[in-house]
Amino acid sequence: MVVAAPSPSTTLPSASGVTLAEIVGALSFALDMTEGQPPGHCVRCCHIGIRIAEELGLPAAARRDLYYTLLMKDLGCSSNAARICELYLADDISFKSEFKEIDDSLASVLRFILQQTGLKAGLSERFRALVNIARNGGAIAQEMIETRCQRGAAIARRMRFSEDVARAIHSLDEHWNGNGRPERLAGEAIPLYARIALVAQVADVFHRSGGRDAAREEVRLRRSSWFDPAVVAAFEQAADRDGFWSGLEDEAIATGILAQEPGSRLEPVDEDYLDDIAAAFAEVIDSKSPYTAGHSDRVALFTDMIGESLGFDPARRRRLKRAALLHDIGKLGVSNQILDKPGKLDEAEWLVVRSHPTLSEEILSRISAFAELATIGGAHHERLDGKGYPRGLAGSAIPLDVRVVTVADIFDALTANRPYRKAMTLSQALAILDADTGTAVDGTCVAALRQALARIDAEAVTAAG
């Protein structure tokens, strides 16, 4: 029997008219959050990098690959967040933000480690962490950068970017003099897109913190050590042209960049490609914490099971799965010191956690056809009784699609290990959902989930027999 679907409901829009540039540009703002950079960092890097490419005379096809390299350069950034917290006893987001401003001199690295490691930890705990870093610093740096680079390149391939884009993302931290990571590549062995992206990244970081002169000076200082001299010369030429700095400082820079994808056309995204992008970016989200590994995929699965039991048509189920994959994108802006904390959160930490649905909504709303997906991202922690967050919506103000994802999200959270407790059994999780029916969650959605689980159980028994 199919459970009847109550009102209200929402109809998710098709992907018609959505361009790859629009989607990738929006997702780049999520990468900025987890790297601790001001909003629009990747977009500004794209502005700088494309201007460098023009000075170098790169053809349109090459500039197009560079364009996506620059917007997605930090695809692997979430994969080492938990490790940073574990090793340095530090807030991963502020750690990454400050790390982008140091050079590779021993004095600079040591000062950074002393300033960042274990500032909120006890003296003995901080001492042990510092000793471990002193003894194993090179191996630790290699491990974290290698993880980031490999994961970023793999996700780029899942998002159907070219091998040149994937290789450039993998090589972002290589230095011209061969002292970078992860492969100690040197000179022209480093992919050109990676060489351009690193200059653009450093230029934006120092421009935001110190202005135009600071950006130019830092790029000059790293010439022939970190940076390809030819790329630095192209940067200097671009920086002297009218509109370079004013364009970089324009609050509407994202609109301009997304309308200027190099090449002869803006590439439309069909439904299959949109599914692949959502699934790939869910990996970025879930890589943030070992406790959320696979969470978005499982929420998408449970969401689809509920949708099937409610009799949703295939197109609606497909788009609802997409929303489930991306519902937690705002968690990229939450430190792992909070996400992975084994004890009770204090008031300030709880406020940060409560901000993640708003961040999800802000990111997804940048994509014109994602209005309903943004609503789900922003409302999946609302409760029927109005005691949820972030807006305290209640009753009919919470659309059915949101209610579906909420039940799927809670069910997965209850049946997965968390830093503060072990996973519950299916029966325990369903009992909690039953107890919260009518106050926190929609009983029809809970019944649909129970029906779907029973159907799977029956099919398993039949297959075994």
Give the SSE order as H and E letters.
HHHHHHHHHHHHHHHHHHHHHHH
Count of extended strands: 0
- Examine the secondary-structure arrangement and name the CATH architecture of the largest domain: Orthogonal Bundle
Distance between the termini: 23 Å
Uncertain ranges: 1-15
Q: Note the total helix count.
A: 23
Radius of gyration: 23 Å
Beta-strand content bin: under 5%
Q: Give the overall shape, derived from the CA principal axes.
A: globular
Spell out the blueprint of helices and strands.
Layout: H1 20-34, H2 41-56, H3 60-71, H4 81-88, H5 92-99, H6 106-116, H7 123-158, H8 163-170, H9 192-210, H10 212-221, H11 229-239, H12 244-249, H13 253-258, H14 271-286, H15 295-309, H16 314-326, H17 336-339, H18 347-354, H19 356-364, H20 371-379, H21 400-414, H22 426-435, H23 443-464
